[in-house]
Amino acid sequence: MARNRTYTEIVTGLDVGSSSVRVAVGQLVVSKDHPQQLQIVSSIEVPSEGIQKGQITSIEDTVSAVSNALEQAEKMVGVPIEHVWVGVSGNQIISQESKGVIAISRTDGEVAEEDIDRAVDAAKAISTPLNYEILHVLPRSFSVDGQTGIKDPVGMTGIRLEVDTKIIHSVTSHIKNLSKVVYRAGVDIDDFVLSILAAGEVVINSRQKELGCVVVNIGGPTTSMVVYEDGDVLHTSVIPIGSSHITNDLALGLKTSIDVAERVKKEYGECVSRGINKKEIVDLKDVGADKSEIVTRYYIAQIIEARVSEILEKVDEELASIERSNMLPAGAVFIGGGSKVNGIIDIAKQVLSLPAQLGYPLGVDSISDKISDISFAPAIGLVKWGSALTHDGKRKPFMSNFKGKMSDRVKGIFKSLIP
Ligand SMILES: Nc1ncnc2c1ncn2[C@@H]1O[C@H](COP(=O)(O)OP(=O)(O)OP(=O)(O)O)[C@@H](O)[C@H]1O
Ligand SMILES: [Mg+2]
Questions:
Q1: CB 64 less than 6 A from any atom of ligand 1
Q2: Taking the model in full, what pTM does it have?
Q3: For the segment 322-369, what is each residue's pLDDT rounded down to a tens digit?
Q4: Are residues 46 and 187 in the same domain?
């Protein structure tokens, strides 16, 4: 019943991509009779400026794109947006395994929350690559006195607590530039979250995570992926090839401009050439070329197929590197603008030998049809990530960055920015 419902504070996700800046604003609807539901109240997309190949090349231009998106979102929501959860993408992300070991502090040997924090802190004590900083520490499993594979050791008894973590690093300059952009756009930062991790939270369910699956985001210059198994993040990776490479290939292959190639890709793009009638033609003049030029749809599809196959083979190589090629029962879930090309699911099934599907947000309510746009998954995922932390403040297995400590880090970055 409506009067049973309460709404949490609004949460905003900001995904600064190479092609588009996206903002999603939402809140959790909490009612006695139903599980929490995420409601998206605004989703805005504006073209990116000042970002190339995932890196900020002009602070001023990026600030203007971000401000524009935030202003539009504010108008739609009707209240000021004061702080945002910021997605981090780009190809300068690396991940490392690390183990933390501590002695359990209580005299009765019972593991407390503080022990977990200390063990995770101990795992952070690895040498961070030069110019990189820790973005996430994801605890994967714990062991108490040698008993391994424990998911939640609180309340267990022992002497020695160990944690296996996955540590994700991002290049420091990128985080600093992103902070500067958000700060200058007039809002505070709740936290930074790896975009693909946020997206994964919203496009797959816990059963898929248990069984094992991969979420693949084909963006402009990059493709990012996250692999889940036994409910945890097993692997993350960024491949420096994305859909903008397809546009470049089409421009070269069809000897036309980037703008025409981009429109050819979006309007006539197909990534399975087999079965296309070789007599079907496209006049480039219809997609903005100066003069008439006839190309076949078969040729367009061949160019796209070659590059999409390459991207998928790289995804498969990443899976092979963790011994999961052909081995994820819940298959591959595709998001990002590059996954909108026709035929992607068919070709993915062939190349990866896995079940494959497009990734739409699950359990999310909205009046806008933007939520069924697969390139909005990271922004919506950020709202989900933020809402869960804002609402109950409790650490969730996937939310292993500790809010308080992170805010200190953000403050530290701000301090270094303020003259
Ligand atoms: N309908 C479509 N068919 C094929 N490709 C498309 C379609 N729509 C968008 N794209 C491509 O998707 C890419 C952009 O994807 P997306 O918007 O997810 O990237 P981004 O988040 O801005 O960038 P990134 O995450 O890589 O920094 C562009 O290369 C664009 O050409
Ligand atoms: Mg993106």
A1: no
A2: 0.91
A3: 999 999 999 999 999 999 999 999 999 999 999 999 999 998 988 778
A4: yes
Which residues are within 8 A (CB) of 316 and not within 5 positions of it... i.e. 6 or more apart? 325, 351, 352
User: For the chain, how many helices (H) and strands (E)?
Assistant: 11, 20
Q: For ligand 1, say whether the CB of 220 is within 6 Å of any of its atoms.
A: yes
**Could you list the residue range(s) of the whole structural domain that residue 282 is in?**
239-357
Residues 284 and 353 in one domain: yes
Residues less than 5 Å from ion ligand 2, measured at CB: 17, 219
CA–centroid distance, 19 to ligand 1, in Å, is 6
Number of domains observed in the structure of the chain: 3
Which ligand sits nearest to residue 375's alpha carbon?
1
Alpha-carbon distances of 135 from 14, 195, 410, rounded to whole Å: 16, 11, 11
Task: Tokens 């939270």: give the residue.
Answer: 201
The answer to whether residue 214 sits within a structural domain is no
| 44 inside domain | yes
18 and 8, same structural domain? yes
**pLDDT exceeds cutoff 80 at 406:** no
Residues 183, 69 within the same domain: yes
Rounded Cα distance, 166 and 124, in Å = 10
Kindly give the number of the ligand 1 atom that is closest to the alpha carbon of 338.
12
- pLDDT tens per residue across span 33-47: 777 788 999 999 999
